[in-house]
Amino acid sequence: PAAAEVQLRHGAAPRPLTVLCWNLMYTNFGQGKGFQRYQLANIMTYKMKADVAGLQECMDEDEMQHALGRRLAKAPGTDIFNCIFYKPSVVDFGGISGRMYLGDEGRDSYSERFVSYAKLLQAGREFWVFSTHWCLDHECAGPAGGLRHKHSAQVILAKREELGAAAAPTIITADANSHMDGLDEDDGVQWLLSHGFEIAGKGPMMGGIDYIFVSKGHWSIGQTRVGPTAPSDHPGFAVQLTLFAEGGEVR
């Protein structure tokens, strides 16, 4: 049996997962942008050493998959905007993935806004990843933006419950655009923090608008590492996350 399976059988936690959150910038997709996607892929795998990646402004999961080759695999149907990738030698696909519209109450004048989701497993232990990108500017500025972000957070948690994952270990990677409503005081951020999540790490963009949230009581949170920015306009960042043993603690 694999070492991680032996660890779990004896009640110990598996090795930490390196979870990456990165807004890749939409202009790095489409014809003539293959070199930029290879740059992104190389940073994701060689520099940041991602086991799991929750992305934003990933405009084509197949274009990104082509750049990554066999290094990471896409969670099917996470599709446009918020693609999710995982390292097959470390994580298994759990057979469920997709994306959903956050609704007119969560969009802005730039774009519709979505959340993608995937069920993954580490040595047979289920966990879920959600990746999202919240609205920005105009009708999404100030307190009105906070309310739209809160709506988006509520939709995400409702989807988690619908998927039967309300009690499962969960990671949410987000470009929350929380500078619209006070950064960590943003209504959407606060909704997650008051409904079972904590901040595992943040990127430095705009004072800290990129987040990795984790469900409380499921994860040991390790080091955060900030990666390069180019060829994006956001620096990516990764957090070391270790699933607690079934008994609820790292051993």
How would you summarize the topology of this molecule?
Blueprint: H1 3-9, E1 17-23, H2 34-47, E2 52-56, H3 61-68, E3 73-74, E4 84-86, E5 92-101, E6 114-122, E7 125-133, H4 142-162, E8 170-175, H5 187-193, E9 197-202, E10 210-215, E11 219-226, E12 237-243
Describe the structure in your own words.
The chain is α+β, with helices and mostly antiparallel strands. 23% of the residues lie in helices and 31% in strands. The protein contains five helices and twelve strands. The chain has helices at residues 3-9, 34-47, 61-68, 142-162, 187-193, and strands at 17-23, 52-56, 73-74, 84-86, 92-101, 114-122, 125-133, 170-175, 197-202, 210-215, 219-226, 237-243. Strands 3-4-2-1-12-11 form a six-stranded mixed sheet, covered by helices on one side. Helix 4 (142-162) runs parallel beside helix 5 (187-193). The longest helix has 21 residues, at 142-162. The chain starts with a helix and ends in an 8-residue tail after the last strand. Mean pLDDT is 94; it is low at 1-10.
Give the overall form.
globular
Portion in strands: 25-35%
Major sheet characteristics: 6 strands, mixed
Sketch the topology as an H/E string, one letter per element. Answer: HEHEHEEEEEHEHEEEE
Class by SSE composition: alpha+beta
Number of helices: 5
| Spans of at least 5 consecutive residues with low confidence | 1-10
The radius of gyration is: 17 Å
Number of distinct beta strands: 12
**What is the average of the pLDDT values?**
94
Distance between the termini: 20 Å
